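Box 4.2: Ligand-aware structure prediction
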Amino acid sequence: MGTYLITGATGGIGRAVAELLYDEGHELVLAGRSPERLHRLAEHLGSPAFGATQTIDPARLSAPGPPVRTVTFDLAEPRRLEAALALADLPARLDGVVHSAGVIDLGPVAELEADQWIDQLMVNLVGAAELTRLLLPALRTARGHLVFVNSGAGLRARASWSAYAASKHGLKALADSLRAEEPALAVTSVYPGRTASEMQKKARTQESASYLPESYIQPLTVARVIVNALATPRDAVLTNISIGRAT
Ligand SMILES: NC(=O)c1ccc[n+]([C@@H]2O[C@H](COP(=O)([O-])OP(=O)(O)OC[C@H]3O[C@@H](n4cnc5c(N)ncnc54)[C@H](OP(=O)(O)O)[C@@H]3O)[C@@H](O)[C@H]2O)c1
């Protein structure tokens, strides 16, 4: 069993990844901004109700689940990440990091203000880069696997998506450079299409369109793809995975 750190663990996709990895018996480090939300998620994972609904092996129902720790930081403030990690009791080895935290703020270039650019670039790109830098020693120890939850917008920029798309294009560059620099690590970029979550609800509101969760990819589906990528035998690595909505 491995140890995995997940950012955006309280969000739609990150939470589904946490549930799947926990159910497989992995140790987790749940990362987010709110200690209360993180602790609620940790309690949910450890509760018998979760085990009873997710576990098919009856022997595991009575066994204690794997350890779950939490670490609190704000990716919008990458200069403070090092201090936040130093205060946390992080494991010395990490088998994987899933970068799922992200923010979106849509609008035409003519209207997007500097703070909107800065926030999306900090959280979606600079924060992910700085966190990666700080976690590299633990990842190298385990010959670990990084998954960057990118977006279709990381491959194509559409009208009103400039800042978000720029952050995700940058995230692709970060992953590609890292893969070339750290051959002992596995690096995967995942590019989901519209996925039912709070982020998508905000995007649809900003597009003046209705939010219909059943019309989008479900977070659990994206999470299954991510967990499968993490489980791929290390004679191969899934480098770039696009996930589109089935028609
Ligand atoms: N939903 C989609 O349609 C879609 C499509 C393609 C790609 N994606 C990508 O998928 C990833 C997950 O998105 P989602 O749909 O699961 O969105 P979500 O439900 O809105 O979750 C976003 C997560 O990011 C965290 N976060 C936001 N700002 C943060 C900050 N400053 N510091 C630390 N954590 C922060 C949130 O944590 P808090 O609890 O602290 O708020 C939350 O856990 C994102 O990278 C997104 O860009 C989403």
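In the box above, the bound molecule is NAP. The pocket of NAP is lined by residues 7-8, 10-14, 32-34, 37, 74-76, 100-103, 123, 149, 151, 192, 194-195, 197-200 (CB under 6 Å).
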